[in-house]
Structures are given as structure tokens and as C-alpha cells.
Amino acid sequence: EVQLLDSGGGLVEPGGSLRLSCAASGFIYSTYAMSWVRQAPGKGLEWVAAISGSGSSTWYADSVKGRFTISTDISKNTVYLQMNSLRGDDTAVYYCAKDAAVVAGVSYFDSWGQGTLVTVSS
Amino acid sequence: EVVMTQFTATLSVSPGERATLSCRASQNINTNLAWYQQKPGQAPRLLIYDASTRVTGTPGRFSGSGSATEFTLTISSLQSEDSAFYYCQQYNYWPPDFGGGTKVEI
């Protein structure tokens, strides 16, 4: 059974930084791309970033490009999201999600973590 | 960027009735469309991919159809546990975009 365990959320001041983690199990981790998807309070879903199974390729939404960095530690089956220069509109529940496709590229998401709340406020 | 539009924000349906949810893409995405269900306080759950393929475990009352720019999720004979938000998502182009969601009220 696929399991994704998100962690690292919390309260941070504008301009601050935070690192989210997502520990994965139940599948061959290095085979699948992983993404982060966020949901602002009362709003819909927004894809944030993705990384290939090998870690060699990354993709970002324009809204976070240059501020967020996605990375992976294959030895720990863990994907990270380093968030810098945080703003109020980054406040959201952040979900890690497993891409369904083995081949690198845009995909849908067949498993999701439980989410971790990031609040950016002074 | 592909804009995904779910025109109906809230759909109120009685138990046992049929619910039809629509999703429109701003350009041709073939059948590269997924549907998710999200209940309050929970993560989204994949229901359908490739526009019409049900995920194992998705009840048979859920069906998807459509191609190119027009897509539909149909819930036949609505059950109380189907009360949720439903999101469509395209995966034909980067970035993978979601629709704004439709809330199904029972």
C-alpha cells in the first residue's frame, strides 16, 4: 500500500523560510515522479512543483519559481520542498502527491499525503 | 497554460438522483483528464483518469466521458457519501492544471 507522510508545516513570518518533507513507502520510489500540490483556505487545488524519480528533472509553477526548490533523497524515499521568501498568498495546505506515470512527464496523481498546513503571517 | 473551467460551483441533488458535473479545457487535451473527489479535511482522492477509466475501488456509479475540450463526470443514483468537492485536472500539457471545483450537496 502506498503511503505518503507529509510534515514540516507551521507558522512563519513573511519573508521567512520553511522546509516540507514527504516520506514515501509502498512503491519503488525512484521510479515515479513526485509533486507538491497546495490548497489555500477555502480554495481549489494548485500544482506547485514536481521532480522526476531520479531527481534529475524539476518543474515549477510560475507562482513559486525562484522561491521554492523541490528535491529528493532516494536513499530515504523522501521528497522535500524548500520554501523561501514566503508571502501571505503561500498560506495553504501542502500535499505531496505521487505521479501515476512511470515515464517522466506531466501526469495525474494517484496517491496523496494527508497534507501539512503552512501559514504565512506576522 | 491550459485553463480548466468547472462552470458549476455548487450542485444540489437529492439522494438517488443523477449528478452531472462538467469540465471544460481552454485547448485540446485529448483524453488526458482526471477527476478527484475531496471531502472536508481530507486529501483529494483519484476517481477517474484518461477521462473515463475508473480507479480500482471507485464505485460503478461514477463514470467519466468526453474528449478534446469537453468532459463530464456523472454520478448516477447519488449516495449521501458522495457529498464532496470534485476537481478535474488536465495532464496533456505542463503545468498540470486543476479546475476550480464543483461542490456536490445532497
Fill in the keyword field for this structure.
heterodimer; A: 122 residues; mainly beta; 7-stranded mixed β-sheet; 4-stranded antiparallel β-sheet; 0% helix; globular; B: 106 residues; 6-stranded mixed β-sheet; 10 strands
Average pLDDT over all residues of chain A? 94
Number of distinct helices of chain B: 0
Multimeric organization = heterodimer
Instruction: Give the spatial strand order of the biggest sheet of chain B.
Output: 2-10-9-4-5-6
**Major β-sheet annotation of chain B:** 6 strands, mixed
Number of strands of chain B: 10
How many runs of DSSP E, i.e. beta strands of chain A?
11
Sheet/helix structural class of chain A: mainly beta
Strand content of chain B: over 45%
**What percent of the residues of chain B sit in helical stretches (DSSP H or I)?**
under 10%
Give the radius of gyration of chain A.
13 Å
Helix content of chain A: under 10%
- The overall pLDDT average of chain B reads 96
Account of the 3D structure:
Chain A has 122 residues and is mainly beta. Chain A is 0% helix and 50% strand. Chain A is built from no helices and eleven strands. Chain A has strands spanning 3-7, 10-12, 18-25, 34-39, 45-51, 58-60, 68-73, 78-83, 92-99, 109-112, 116-120. In chain A, the strands form two sheets. In chain A, strands 2, 4, 5, 6, 9, 10 and 11 form a seven-stranded mixed β-sheet that branches. In chain A, β5 and β6 (58-60) form a beta hairpin. Chain A is globular and about 40 Å long. The mean pLDDT of chain A is 94. In chain B, the strands form two sheets. Chain B has a six-stranded mixed β-sheet, with no helix packed on it. Chain B is an all-beta fold and 106 residues long. Chain B has strands at residues 4-5, 10-12, 19-25, 33-38, 45-49, 53-54, 62-67, 70-75, 84-90, 102-105. Chain B is built from no helices and ten strands. The chains are: A mainly beta (122), B mainly beta (106).
